[in-house]
Amino acid sequence: MPQLPRSLAPALALLALALPACKFVDTAELAARRQAAAAPTASASGTALYGAKVVPYVNEKAVPFGEIRTAAAADFASAGERFGYREVKEGAPFNFLARVAGTIVSADTKSRAATALVDTDGDGTGDVTIQLGPVIKGTSLRDALPFVTFTSYANQIEFADVAKAFNSQAYETALKALPREALVGRSVEAVGAFTLKSGADRVLLTPVSVTLGGGA
User: Fold this and answer.
1) For the chain, which terminal residue's Cβ has fewer other Cβ atoms within 10 angstroms, N or C?
2) Quick one: residue 6, left, alpha or beta (phi over 0 = left, psi -120 to 50 = alpha)?
3) 103 and 169 Cβ atoms separated by less than 8 Å
4) Which residue stretches of the chain have pLDDT < 70?
């Protein structure tokens, strides 16, 4: 058997030590990794879904807020089943899609989570708080959509990222250009989503559209 040159011995010894620490990845795993890397993120897919499907769905399914309010005052559970949606049927809050119209009675526009309080029935008292952003709280918009489910995503983080993407798009497309001064007394119409655990909860609307009118 031929002798290896002595100069190769140290290199071969190092190779022998290194091999046990190496991880060999089969072709299937490599393909899966490439596919995962190429797949759009939950945030990116949520952004794309927003304009293509979310806004049209909300506009189609939203009902006048007064109908929801009247039904909820009479029987909240029945109102939830009739007008609301929840992915988990037992114990979860209901998510509603509504059209709101009224007069702004107060506004907090100094906060990054700016809001406007709207009187919808003419009694001078605010009934609905419309979020103006840029910080949009909650996941109502995501949770009101039957075609956006937890099982469609890999984990809770991805599911949360979709909600953030929807909220971000709501601000960028419907809220960013709205004025922040002299809102009180102006008429407003909005379409969006809100979540209630009971009929006594405050209504916090995440809008996909807001239209301001003139003062009273």
Assistant:
1) N
2) alpha
3) no
4) 1-26, 28-40, 216
Q: Where are the domains of the chain?
A: 23-215
Q: Name 69's Cβ contacts closer than 8 Å, sequence gap at least 6.
A: 120, 127
Query: Is the CATH number 2.40.50.420 carried by domain 23-215?
Result: yes
Mention every residue, 6+ apart, whose C-beta is less than 8 A from residue 100.
Answer: 65, 118, 120, 128, 130, 188, 189, 190, 191, 192, 205
Tokens representing 204?
């916090």
Report pLDDT digits (tens) over 122-158. Answer: 999 999 999 999 999 999 999 999 999 998 898 999 9
The whole-angstrom separation of Cα 199 and Cα 176 is: 31
Burial (0-12, 13-18, 19+ Cβ within 10 Å), 145: buried
What pLDDT is recorded for position 38? 43
pLDDT of residue 1: 53
d(CA 209, CA 142): 16
Report the C-alpha gap between 159 and 156 in whole angstroms.
5
- If you count DSSP H runs as helices and E runs as strands, how many of each does the chain have, helices first? 8, 7
Give the DSSP H or E segment for 188: strand 186-196
The pTM score is 0.80
